[in-house]
Amino acid sequence: MKQPLSIYIHIPFCVKKCLYCDFPSFAGCENIYDDYVSALCSEISDNASVFSDCEIKTIFIGGGTPTVLSCKNIGKIMDSIIEKYNVSNDAEITSEANPETVDFKKLSEMRSMYINRLSMGVQAWQDRLLKKLGRIHTRETFVANFNEARRAGFKNINCDLMFSLPSQTMDDWEETLENVLKLKPEHISAYSLIIEDGTPFKKMFDEGCLNPIDDDIDRKMYYLCKEMLSDKGYKQYEISNFAKPGFECRHNCVYWQTQEYVGFGLAAHSYFNGKRFHNTLDMKKYIEAKGSFNKLHEDIEILSEKEKIEEFMFMGLRMNRGIEKEEFKNRFNFEIDDIYKNELCKLKEEKLINENNGRIFLTEYGMDVSNYVFEEFIK
Amino acid sequence: MSSSRQSKIRNFCIVAHIDHGKSTLADRLIQKTGLLTEREMQEQVLDNMDIERERGITIKSQAVRLVYKSKSGEEYIYNLIDTPGHVDFNYEVSRSLAACEGAVLVVDAAQGVEAQTLANVYLAIDNNLEILPVINKIDLPSANPQMAINEIEDIIGIPAHDAPLISAKNGINIEEVLEKIAEVIPPPSGDENKPLRALIFDSVYDSYKGVIVIMRVMDGKIQKGSKVRFMATKKEFEVVEVGYFGPGKLIPCNTLSAGDVGYLTASIKNVADTHVGDTVTDVENPTHEPFPGYKKVNPMVYCGIFPADGAKYPELKDALEKLQLNDASLFFEPETSAALGFGFRCGFLGLLHLEIIQERLEREFNLDLVTTAPSVIYKIFLTDGTEIDISNPSNMPDPAKIEHMEEPVVKAEIILPKDYIGTIMELCQQRRGEYESMEYLDDTRAMLVYHMPLNEIIYDFFDVLKSRSRGYASFDYSLEGYKESSLVKLDILVNREVVDALSFIVFKDSAVERGRKICEKLKKEIPRHLFEIPIQASIGSKIVARSTVSAMRKDVLAKCYGGDISRKRKLLEKQKEGKKRMRSIGSVEVPQSAFMSVLKLDDE
Q: What is this model's ipTM?
């Protein structure tokens, strides 16, 4: 049997950087798109032999904004994978899309390149909030292009939403959820805003011009979201992710289940053969390396058994289904109680985790304070 | 009658307010007398310790011998005795002064006379020293030498019209100071044929030679092989070496005679055997007149010092022992706190002394410390007629058994620009000061005298004084005695458990306000837990203030995908590490910073 593997492709370009974003991505670099794509295709093709024993189960093209690229460039990238890799027939192939950067033609072409899942950055329904986030699209273009994506044949669409935004009210959030639900996407990700270091939001926060939402209101928004989505038949399967049955994002589950993936493109992260590393963050260096792994890979860590166990716990518990004791034993040759008996006992007493049918998972409050829970598993 | 040898000796010190240039002048005198070349001259030779150099203050006194050839061609021996400038070391200062015949008084031409100048110059006058005033920093743009001269004459009451106008920093008119020392300061007058009588004014520990006793020989002679007795401690030793101090080094010699300043070593293991102020005499031919004024110095301020990492207790013990080798006035004994674990109860001469020790422990010994609120020594009179001293709030007896309590009171002298008089008087009143007097020193400055409880100035009085006067007020204090007062023990409860390390004794009428501030401070310092945490201040069983740390609502990372895992792990590891360093009070984890935060309760 072939080794299952997922591929992540990073497109580090945007029309404009959003004010909350700390991802490696650049605006105003149209002149290097071709060089970048050519280096990226070399990285994918030239190293294909390394992965000849692998079967590609999922592909995720993220960014940045992959849809800033022309259809031709997106096509080149997809071709370089399809030609040299064993991509499974039922692979989930996702591309992120900014509503402002797509139209029916682009969406149709993407669909014809085997891309079968679209993840749209919606964030909010109110143009006022979109502007505050530094988003380039409006509610109107989102609705229009969501419908165009359906017409182009996308039967699996995710909408990314954000709450706890500065000046966002409970009514705003309810309105966002209501209207997005009317469009019936298969999947919804709902993220509480994180003010990341190095972002304009962080600077505004430090200067006192950005009032963060109170934790109590944040949780009210979160619970409202859970309730409204559950009413419409979406099942929560991770801290921030909800899906209609059968539409859970298989690619992201790979991360949470600490399975292996390889990332191509600037700054892309990989976890392959027990090693974690990422590609260079330097664009010039990336393009000049012409895909040579030796020149690209940085911060290579060989995970110890201890680290593997810890990550299995704090990534796995993000999912509603939690972790299986049986799987723990199969992977690590220890009973979970050999390692974490006291911790599990304490967390159960604190009503932060539950156990059922050999699975251990977070309670509702446990999800709210998951960092506190995860810390227990770091030894 | 002074011999001709003695007539060429001058023993003197330099007195000044902090920053007025005492150490810089000392450096120049050393340099000008040719003991050091320019290249060898490291700034401020007399101040050995880093902290001293950084703070620009002198902690331990030392003595250096200079040879000066005067304009008339005579060769003089100058013994420059460096003295600490701060009130905490008043006794040390007075003993150093007693070893001199004169003092060079340095006054900053821009600042004029300050509180410390007064305190030190009065001490010098009390010791019958001849005062040589010198006006320093005359090259500053804001210098007003005439103002400084007038202040010396008006406030101190000594003539200053022909005081040398100098810049120690830039080496201006240093010759004039050297010349005046020979002229103004009298030579020593002891009799070398009398029995040995030498005054100990300092000691330092050396790992090879043992204790190096620094002394002034008043009468008689001392040499290698002499059998000596320290009259107060009654310890006897055989002298291994005598000598004097070159800058930064010991220079052995055959004999020290009446009038000389120098050192002896005698394989002395413990500085505690060599008390400052004690008299050294000859065992065979002892004097019957020990030097007057000897007293054993006692700590005035106490606090608990604990290692931040409990495992570092042995290192802390070791460090304190090493510091004590050179600082007999540092007191410590083991203390156990339910909240902070094993540590030491330490006693200090005053606030500056406390700060210096803390800094040295942290800097020189690389220790991370948690200190508890400083306390003075209270006298408690019990209903059964007994009297006890306590410096640790934990030892406070049941209030029902207390008849009354007394606390130490100091006389505080504050010199300040007149614009700040109102503000500072208000501050003194808030701190229970009793007004004694106010005197205008000149058109712009005044001196306030208050009687204040020591416990009101050991927290943050100096900081607040400085901030309210924009740094212009200067301050000095001296212990006056004890006074009956209405005092209570204030306890702090975290999640309904008393935290011993946070208890302290406070004036009854200030207790509620203090308790309220502490509860608010702790609320900010204690992280949210899964449950609500009440923080309370109580006097006995009565709760007088309260705040609440509400339960944790949210601690979650919304996004965590392939590229976030390493970062997420580091975050969790850091959190975990932080928690390990916290102190457990019942089921509440309290960071070190919470204990320190209550030491600085902003007055504003």
A: 0.92
